[in-house]
């Protein structure tokens, strides 16, 4: 009886969610591999069921057997992922089973990587906007691939008041023309698509799996790949033949490519995961690999170099009464290389703790503060707990919490306007800290090392100043009397990263940019086309191995990359089918 009731609830839940792409329920726990593994092996083994891996797996499964290995769990039935209003909860969840794995780059910027079927599309702000064309892409196939994604999971937003105010402010600040509602990357001000439907329900890359062929598509969750296996005995190049992975109980399995086929292992584990796996599998700079005691499969000095993260700087706009939540809907695309976006209202529920700055989400917990409602006391989300234990002293936590506590409360009730820098031009690197695939590597981005990045940020912050001065937020902000310096001051005191602050942060916009930099989670670039992979996304120097995800980008595509990363998964899938099967690809 109870079970039937649950099943009915479950169905209602998914019927409601299936207005766009329908949920994919065909995944299994990784331990099931012990009894269900195909004895012949698989045509394609895809590592990472994320933003690129899901559309790629669905597409290849139309003609080939595909094993998709995802280290995280399922997004379905988790309201922290599916509901718009819970946006910040998953992102700041630091528990071991969290869909978001926190890390801190050596720059002192708090960051996160996805660990869930559907990847970053389960955690992000939902904004959907295409990239401008790239020379290495077949633009006709690009134009076929975006709509395949859009038909299934993309919606047009109902413009929130905060987003209307941003639109009007951008126009007043000269970010013209107004381009209306469009997916295209065009200069001026526009409203983009969203993966949240009108009921506030999130659609993700995992939904794209439901358009695969269920006979050919094998999806395992909690399958954590440890390394790629190579055959170095035949021919003159190493050939990828399979992967080793651990299941949810820690037991190890070996998945193999079918010996008859000419398929590949494809890494779609993201800008950090794919690199970490290449290095752990012996593909990378010889010196770095030797230092950590890894046997070399292929010496490639470029692996892990050129890592980049687009700096994001936010200006918090305080208001005195609560405002409706909104995530990115409007964007200003300036010719000077700064993108302007905004969010509002992620601050007045218990989950949002004392002073949740929406997409900043670098918050500490409420227990130490005196003005927290009793029923919220002890809420322990916040990324401070991700600081390595030795540095995470009680004093540090208290100082961090106090710095938030003295912020005007209305600041936390408002919203923010943010600048993301195009590119960026500053680059860093990724290196292994140890041989454990489940632990994060060391990541450095060197934000603002390149002076042009800093100029772009200054331009962005000055544009935000013009927007604030335009009065377009007047109806939403009760007290319009804040000077820009006071606004910058609050943003500095919000203490959003672990970078020491300077006394001239509000006097010098350059210094403000450097000291309040956070991530917009669009890091990329350690596995670039032309250096680590070719135009066909095959890893140069070995056979049977490709990388298809954001790690291959030089520069973050569009304003926000999820559209392009999903497109890329579809694009490469179709290309492989057509090149391998010609007319028989039927796609
Ligand atoms: C959602 O988040 C809340 C608050 O952090 C937590 O108590 C709950 O367990 C989470 N739910 C799931 C399904 O993870
Ligand atoms: C692809 O679509 C864009 C508009 O989104 C258009 O400008 C371009 O000409 C198209 N390219 C091809 C080859 O059809
Ligand atoms: C805020 O959201 C509520 C509930 O969704 C809605 O009824 C109200 O009209 C919204 N307010 C504004 C100003 O949009
Ligand atoms: C919150 O809980 C702690 C103990 O867990 C207690 O010392 C503190 O007084 C509580 N604060 C409030 C505002 O209830
Ligand atoms: C900025 O904040 C500091 C304290 O951190 C304060 O002394 C100073 O007066 C503030 N300046 C403005 C313009 O609000
Ligand atoms: C701000 O002050 C710091 C410390 O005094 C100094 O190193 C830095 O150059 C100053 N920044 C600017 C842009 O003047």
UniProtKB/TrEMBL annotation:
**Cofactor(s) the protein requires to work:** FAD
Pfam families named among the record's database cross-references: GMC_oxred_C, GMC_oxred_N
Looking at the record, the residues that make up the Glucose-methanol-choline oxidoreductase N-terminal domain are 42-308
* Disulfide bonds listed in the record: 457-513
| Alphabetically ordered keywords of this record | Disulfide bond, FAD, Flavoprotein, Signal
A GO molecular-function term, please? oxidoreductase activity, acting on CH-OH group of donors
Q: Which InterPro entries match?
A: FAD/NAD-bd_sf (IPR036188), GMC_Oxidoreductase-Related (IPR051871), GMC_OxRdtase (IPR012132), GMC_OxRdtase_N (IPR000172), GMC_OxRtase_C (IPR007867)
Q: Which residues form the Glucose-methanol-choline oxidoreductase C-terminal domain?
A: 424-569
Positions binding FAD in this chain are 116, 225, 521-522, 550, 561-562
Q: Where is the signal peptide?
A: 1-20
Task: Describe the family membership recorded for this protein in Swiss-Prot or TrEMBL.
Answer: Belongs to the GMC oxidoreductase family.
What protein is this chain from?
Protein HOTHEAD
From what organism does this protein derive? Acorus calamus (Sweet flag)
